[in-house]
Amino acid sequence: MTQKYQAVKGMNDVLPAESYQWEYFEGVLRKLLADYGYQNIRTPIVEGTPLFVRSIGEVTDIVEKEMYTFIDSLNGDSLTLRPEGTAGTLRAVVEHNLLYNATPKLWYMGPMYRHERPQKGRYRQFHQVGVEALGLAGPDIDAEVIAMTADLWRRLGISQFVRLEINSLGNAEERAAHREALIQYLEQHADILDEDGKRRLYTNPLRVLDTKNPALQDMADNAPRLSDYLGEESRVHYAGWKATIAALGIEFVENPRLVRGLDYYNRSVFEWVTSELGAQGTVCAGGRYDGLVEQLGGKAAPGIGFGMGMERVLLLLQDKNLLPAQRSVDVYLVNQGEGAGLYSMKLAQQLRAAGYSVVQHLGEASFKSQMKKADGSGAEFALIVGENEIQAGQVVIKALRADIVQQTVAADAVLATLASLKA
Ligand code: ATP
Ligand code: MG
Which of 19, 62, 257, 366 has its CA 20 to 30 A from that of 218? Predict the structure, then answer.
């Protein structure tokens, strides 16, 4: 028996029965992003490993255990399949000097790779759409990013299934002061910390609070709050952000424990969460990363962005039956007999040139079975060509969905007739 091959675990094929749903979702996204003035950027799927370690942070889930890293056997470089989109985008921005006299608003869409345990809403190859708005320091862009995502939920019809959680992480000094207090607090509770917690106590104490362990919730709830350590500027920024979102009529809850799993965030952070997908409830997550451009070798520039898990949004759309029906072709061309193939192919080309989508039946089959296929295709019209029609220079037009009498018209009148029937 010959070997059969299977896709890599946690990496999924998207087959036609589902790919049209992706196309619909991507179409809504492209329109939305254009409406807000974002421009597309396309960066490689593979980057040098140090880029991710440096930007995402050494002590994070992603860098500690989730990256697909390999050695380029040609030169010994360590390379990594991108686990997220911000690092590569900012690498490109710095490399090509896109911030020179400009405040670019960029978006990307594509596959990301993380070595996780596959389950519903969590895969090893998954897709994110994300934006990065660079060079703008004020809370107005933070609010516009929220407004845009809220607008997306409205356009998709899922506003009622998602909620917005926000927090402010302050700046580096404020986080350092809070960190010290937090370490002291965690040391007092070291006896109840789990493995992860003990390991992170000194390396990433904020993440200890991000625990999902129920036994640690009380401890986490009573820990020193970052909000109490925010200085004047950070507080004003946070207040400005909240006031604008509220004035736009967008509901949110403040979650003082929202810290995000990547190191580069500061000030505004947010997550859009749903309760409809079980444990994998975060559909979109992001925030401000004012130090990252400089950290990656560019001239200091503020930035804010988000990454959205496209599979999770699609799961929600499927679950709520909010996806349109699969689009079918306009015309199915039934043809049989001497010379019918070429006669029909020329006709099909004329129709396509006029804007119709057409499937011409290819291969031997009876009229009856071809008509069945025409019906199953979802096409609005069947055009029928047999030897009689060729001899008379005609085509039969049959409406498949509407109650219209079948007609036989001259071949050069097909376009006009179809147009009148559609009207
Ligand atoms: P989680 O807490 O679910 O692991 P995260 O904090 O690791 O998420 P981010 O790095 O912020 O996620 O990525 C942004 C979004 O990408 C997530 O909110 C989620 O919607 C999606 N996402 C992240 N990891 C996966 C995955 N393995 N499979 C599918 N979607 C994912
Ligand atoms: Mg994760």
Answer: 62
